Q: What sequence folds into this?
């Protein structure tokens, strides 16, 4: 039969009868339909029952796993962001605390030095006042002594000039008169 | 040298059932080969079931997603129940087309009886699925909305004729492309041999050879494209069956 087919095509070129052209030979139709049904049926069965569900399962599994990992990554990222925010916050807090601490220390030191300066100043002021008082007192005493020395000297001068002793009362009144003049 | 010789059917194992000749032929053998190649591609290559696929598994996954997306886009999510059918059709036609491009092989899809049978499988599926999912509402496919009553009979007649001609166009497109491509390849290949045997004319034999190389590239494109066209048309017809109120 195989030979018959091939001779059909080899010899039947100019037409004549059926089957000059192999794709249009009806006597080979039944065999092709049957074998197409068998092979295509087998292929459909294999694909629909075995191959496609298997590939679908692999793809679904991968999608799930990727989705899960993406979710986990997003959660981790959120956690990391929270931690970083908290860290930033604590740093800012510490910074402000440190600034406040430094400020208060500075204030305290300034107040302390202010106070010590003031007490020193007042102490010095007091010392100055007592010294001034002392000086005034000394001056007054010295001035009093000057009166006595002057009257003595005046008495001695008068005695030497006149040869007569004078009484201190006279000299004192004379000095008072000279002072008043 | 005969460009038609490649389409000959030769019996490998003669077989008769109920007086009908259903011998195992070279065509049958190539169908079996195609099924085995698809099974190798889609079952054996996927066997590692790796989370990070290797090249071969990746190939199978890419084909799967390509067809799945095609069905989803053309026939909607409800069309996915026909995904195995579209996938089997696409892969069977694609592998038959590509195997047929190898010299000395037989092209299963270059026989009209094969392509018309495949097209009729689609046609029958569309009709059965259409009535099963939409009942008599499926007949609205032939009555487009918004058409004036006066021209409605003409439109319905045109719709019915276009519906009935679907398996014809679907099968002849594939068959004719395969047949014409292989004949052209064979003719240009024959030119090379004839020129080589014609003395001084052998000098211009590279020209048809170059043409054969270019045609081979074109035929590879056609082999893929025709499988794709057959599959996408199947999806569109199934879409009509599932959503007839277009």
A:
């Amino acid at each position: 039969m195989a030979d018959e087919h091939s001779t059909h095509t080899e010899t039947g070129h100019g037409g004549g009868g059926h089957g000059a052209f192999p794709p249009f030979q009806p006597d080979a139709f039944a065999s092709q339909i049957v074998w197409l049904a068998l092979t295509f049926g087998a292929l459909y069965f294999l694909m629909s029952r075995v191959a496609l569900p298997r590939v679908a399962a692999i793809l679904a599994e991968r999608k799930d796993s990727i989705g899960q990992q993406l979710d986990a990554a997003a959660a981790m990222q959120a956690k990391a962001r929270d931690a970083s925010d908290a860290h930033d916050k604590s740093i800012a807090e510490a910074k402000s605390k440190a600034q406040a601490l430094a400020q208060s220390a500075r204030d305290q030191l300034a107040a302390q030095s202010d106070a010590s300066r003031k007490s020193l100043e007042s102490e010095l002021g007091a010392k100055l006042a007592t010294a001034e008082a002392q000086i005034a007192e000394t001056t007054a005493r010295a001035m009093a002594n000057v009166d006595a020395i002057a009257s003595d000297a005046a008495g001695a001068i008068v005695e030497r000039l006149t040869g007569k002793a004078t009484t201190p009362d006279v000299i004192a009144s004379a000095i008072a008169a000279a002072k008043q003049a | 040298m005969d460009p038609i010789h490649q389409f000959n059917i030769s019996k490998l194992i003669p077989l008769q059932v109920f007086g009908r000749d259903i011998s195992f032929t070279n065509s049958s053998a190539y169908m079996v080969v195609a099924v085995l190649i698809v099974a190798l591609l889609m079952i054996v290559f996927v066997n590692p079931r790796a989370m990070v696929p290797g090249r071969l598994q990746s190939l199978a996954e890419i084909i799967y997603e390509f067809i799945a997306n095609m069905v989803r886009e053309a026939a909607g999510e409800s069309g996915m129940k026909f995904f195995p059918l579209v996938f089997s059709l696409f892969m069977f036609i694609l592998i038959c087309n590509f195997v047929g491009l190898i010299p000395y092989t037989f092209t299963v899809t270059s026989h009209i009886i094969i392509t018309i049978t495949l097209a009729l499988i689609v046609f029958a599926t569309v009709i059965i699925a259409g009535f099963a999912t939409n009942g008599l509402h499926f007949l609205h496919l032939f009555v487009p909305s918004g058409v004036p009553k006066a021209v409605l009979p003409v439109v319905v007649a045109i719709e019915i004729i276009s519906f009935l001609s679907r398996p014809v166009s679907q099968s002849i497109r594939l068959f004719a492309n395969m047949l014409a491509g292989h004949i052209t390849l064979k003719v240009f290949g024959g030119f090379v041999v004839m020129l080589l045997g014609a003395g001084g004319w052998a000098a211009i034999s590279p020209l048809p050879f170059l043409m054969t190389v270019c045609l081979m590239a074109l035929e590879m494109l056609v082999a893929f494209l025709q499988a794709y066209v057959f599959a996408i048309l199947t999806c569109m017809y199934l879409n009509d069956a599932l959503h007839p109120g277009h």
Q: What stands out?
A: Residues 29-162 of chain A form the longest helix (134 residues). DSSP finds three helices and no strands in chain A.
